[in-house]
Write a structure and sequence with these properties.
This protein is α+β, with helices and mostly antiparallel strands. The protein is 27% helix and 22% strand. The termini are far apart.
Length: 525
């Protein structure tokens, strides 16, 4: 049987195979019925006598081809299917698959893997190609790939492959490409120790309608915000936990359990519904992972123009210059009106924006620019429910947190734009890598048992803030049973780094993981 004894298998050159790029025929640029030549690594369309793959096999004497969609091997021009177990490693590189035991082992195994080209790598700690100016995309993708709930969800394609979108909706590409990228990053059997995010980046450009470009550097925060919201839409997720649909299902469950002999102890679905993981309502993996909630207290203060209108003496008269009018009475009277009373609203959030203090204008006595430092706790005081922040519309606001997400994102405001260029605040934020306690930021009436977080990803900006002059890198925590190790990734460059060096960087975006069982940890200590 020729299918099981193909004489051309020894011509396959695995070192030239690269399945990271878009699956297009190199001649016709068509994405239909594309085959990969396993001898030279190029893509060609079709398998018939007049197809580009057939012509290539006859002209260059390359015989072994792989269908990139059916994952079947063929020999051309003889046109028979090849069945051989030695080719399984090629199909696994093209389409890595993970079982539940494989996913559980990712957090318990820290073995170095050896790629086909001889380089060693840790699954997950893999460099990403910078095609031109997409370093701002690479750091976001690397950071999200190390959020375990997100990673575990996208490692299994069946978690999202059944989701249906309206006909012609391109947002489905976002979840498909991101899942493929996550599986390639965590593939323990790669042929090379780096991955090209080409298809993922193309889907970002397409789905964002060219708002984010491969050839033009952008802002990682803008990309992260857009990506999380767009992915939530692509997965048919709801942004609201306390939606009317959720309450309706919860009330139905309560009625059902009251009319039966079941008890809450025997019905874990009731407990799940009471919290945010009710299976009948799809909150979305991103909402469950990153969304918290806060109270926003707002109060309007009288503007100077309003106080002048309340003053019966015109400000331009001689009387006001001799006897300056103090509008305290008017101000107190206005503050008693309903318009100036404090209001409260609950609002979900995906990240917390931290304001840096203004950088010093002058140099020190040695003619060097002073690089100030500020503790992270000082920046977080914005959300303690007492500190007020003024807005341009004469509104004072204060914030306090009512629910903490499993993974909390901090955005440190470093950049300010004016009419001419972008300015960067070089202030260093001092923060511990582990065990920051946010208990002081929690509202009194909120029930939040765990308030301690550990850092898992830290995105840093280096250099000039103006377009194309600076660069981004990311610090990633590789979680394993042995002492956790930190790595620095900047495009293809991967190196380990000491935790003490992370705090010296100009942090821009951080992802923190909630530490479970805070009280138990304190008692054990």
């Amino acid at each position: 049987d020729r299918s099981r004894s193909c004489p051309y298998l020894d011509t396959i050159n695995r070192s030239l195979l690269d399945f990271d790029f878009e699956k297009l025929c190199s001649v016709s640029l068509s994405h239909l019925n594309v085959y990969a030549c396993l001898v030279c690594g190029k893509y060609f369309q079709g398998r018939g006598r007049k197809s580009h793959a057939y012509t290539h096999s006859v002209e260059f004497n390359h015989h072994v081809f792989l269908n990139l969609y059916t994952l079947k091997f063929y020999c051309l021009p003889d046109n028979y299917m090849i069945v051989d177990s030695s080719l399984e490693d090629i199909t696994y590189v093209l389409n890595p698959t993970f079982t539940k035991p494989d996913i559980r082992q990712l957090s318990s195994d820290a073995k170095l893997m050896r790629a086909y080209d001889g380089t060693t790598y840790l699954p997950g700690i893999v460099g990403l190609n910078n095609i031109k100016a997409n370093d701002y995309c690479n750091v976001v993708l690397q950071a999200l790939s190390h959020v375990p709930p997100l990673r575990n969800y996208f490692l299994r394609e069946e978690n999202y492959s059944h989701i249906k979108r309206p006909p012609g909706d391109i947002m489905i590409l976002l979840s498909q490409r991101f899942g493929e990228l996550i599986r390639k990053l965590w593939n323990p059997r790669n042929f090379k120790a780096h991955v090209s995010p080409h298809e993922m980046l193309q889907s970002i450009v397409l789905c964002s309608r060219k708002r984010f470009q491969i050839t033009k550097q952008g802002d990682p925060l803008d990309l992260l915000t857009w990506f999380l919201n767009s992915m939530n839409v692509a997965l048919n997720g709801s942004k609201k936990r306390n939606s009317s649909k959720w309450n309706q299902h919860f009330n139905l469950l309560n009625t059902f359990f009251k009319n039966t002999n079941f008890t809450p102890a025997k019905t874990p679905i009731l407990t799940l519904a009471k919290h945010q993981y009710h299976p009948l309502v799809n909150l979305g993996i991103l909402t469950k992972t990153f969304q918290g909630e806060m109270k926003i207290y707002s109060r309007k203060i009288p503007s100077p123009e309003t106080l002048k209108k309340g003053n019966h003496i015109a400000p331009t008269t001689i009387l006001t210059s001799i006897f300056p009018f103090q509008p305290e009475d008017i101000k107190q009277k206005l503050l008693k009106e309903a318009e100036y009373q404090e209001t409260m609203e609950r609002s979900p959030f995906l990240y917390l924006a931290l304001d840096l203090p203004a950088a010093p204008l002058y140099k020190d006595e040695l003619e060097h620019n002073i690089i100030p430092q500020v503790p992270l706790a000082t920046l977080l005081a914005k959300f303690n429910g007492q500190s007020e922040k003024g807005k341009r519309d004469s509104t004072m606001k204060r914030f306090e947190i009512t629910r903490l997400p499993p993974y909390l994102i901090f955005y440190i405001k470093r950049f300010t734009k004016n009419l001419f260029f972008i300015e960067k605040n070089p202030t260093i934020v001092n923060f511990p890598v582990t065990n920051i306690d946010l208990e002081e930021l929690i509202a009194v009436d909120a029930d939040v048992p765990n308030t301690c977080y550990d850092l898992v990803a830290n995105i840093v900006h280096d250099g000039d803030p103006n377009e194309g002059k600076g660069s981004y890198r990311v610090h990633i925590l590789h979680q394993s049973p042995v002492p956790n190790k930190w790595y620095e990734l900047q495009d293809l460059h991967v190196s380990d780094i000491l935790p003490q060096m992370i705090t010296l960087s100009e942090a821009y975006i951080q992802i923190w993981a909630l530490r479970k069982g805070k009280k138990a940890d304190q008692e054990n200590a």
